[in-house]
Amino acid sequence: MPKCTDGEAYSVATYNRYLTIAFQVDVENFLLKFEELKSLKFSDFATIWKEMKFSYINSEQQYYTFIRQFVDNCFFILKKFIVFPKNIYTSTGAIYLMYALYFKQIVNNWVKIRITQYEYMKLQDLIEQLRKDEQIEPLYCYGKLVTSNAFEYVFQKKPLAPEAWCMKNLSDYTDDTFQVTTTMNSGLKLKDVLNKDNFLESFTKVTTEYNDALKKFSVNNVGLGIFESNIIQDINATLNSFENKKEEAHNSMYDRRKEIRDRAMTTKNSTRYSAVAKEESEISIDEDWKF
Questions:
Q1: Which of 87, 62, 57, 91 is CA-nearest to residue 74?
Q2: Nearest to residue 36, comparing CAs of 192, 222, 265, 229?
Q3: What count of Cα atoms within 13 Å lies in the side-chain half-sphere of residue 109?
Q4: What angle do CA 188, 191, 192 make, to 5 degrees?
Q5: Could you give the 3-state DSSP secondary structure of residue 113?
Q6: Looking only at Cα atoms, what is the longest distance across the chain?
Q7: How far apart are CA 178 and CA 75, in angstroms?
């Protein structure tokens, strides 16, 4: 196999890193949506899956090597939301995502879900809680993963490889879950606060009535200083700025991912992979819908 140059090694490693970060952002947004429903039903999970078009997660992947690495990284990220649980909804959503992504793989030999003893213990804590709560659907998904030999019980979280560009960090987990989306969701949180109990609408009405009353009062009080309040406009401008920043962040991330992907695709030892259409896996609990 021809050796890749330092530049090629960097481009592939950078490509994998940026793609992994982007996937975690998507997963966090997915799990936050699932959490908002306060539901553990698989049908609610499937609704978000379709809405966010997660079936197309591998649509831009053209190289066999990268597909397998990407899937392995996906499982690594999903396990974080079980090892560092935010609540039962996000942890269960992570199981559903792990289940769906495993059975939706487009490679011939499916990538196994590596799991260490510590990860297994954390997973069993979640499974035990689901058993106590009699949550049949997530237990079914987990059971099917087990019976399908989806898990590979290992000593290390990730494998080592001699090639520099595919060397993987074996350091302990760091709890970086839901940190990437914190800034991006600041505007949404502010909007939720202002819209709670029609606060912004009521505040706008009170401000308008106050300004009108002040103008009438000033007719007989010439010395009264009056200024035009722009507080409502300022609030709306702030909300709009958050929306613009969020859109810019998404566009910037997309452009960066595209740039990295285009560079990485030119490496000499990238193996072209022509994906063969795979028969659709029967992974739905209900036959009313499919991924």
A1: 57
A2: 192
A3: 4
A4: 85
A5: strand
A6: 91
A7: 16
Residues 199, 242: one domain?
no
Q: Which domain holds residue 169?
A: 6-184+238-264
Q: What is the pLDDT of residues 176-187, one digit of tens each?
A: 777 755 555 555
The string of pLDDT tens digits covering residues 117-162 is 999 999 999 999 999 999 999 999 999 999 999 999 988 776 666 6
Q: 193 and 254: one domain?
A: no
**Interatomic CA distance for residues 40 and 29, integer angstroms:** 17
Instruction: Spell out the alpha helix ranges (H) of the chain.
Output: 6-36, 42-51, 64-83, 88-103, 117-132, 136-147, 180-184, 186-195, 199-219, 231-264
The answer to whether residues 196 and 105 belong to one domain is no
Residue 252 belongs to a domain: yes
How many Å apart are CA 12 and CA 205, to the nearest integer? 56
Cβ atoms of 209 and 56 within 8 Å: the answer is no
What backbone torsions phi and psi does residue 152 show, to the nearest 5 degrees? Answer: -115, 110
Cα separation, 149 vs 131, in Å, equals: 21
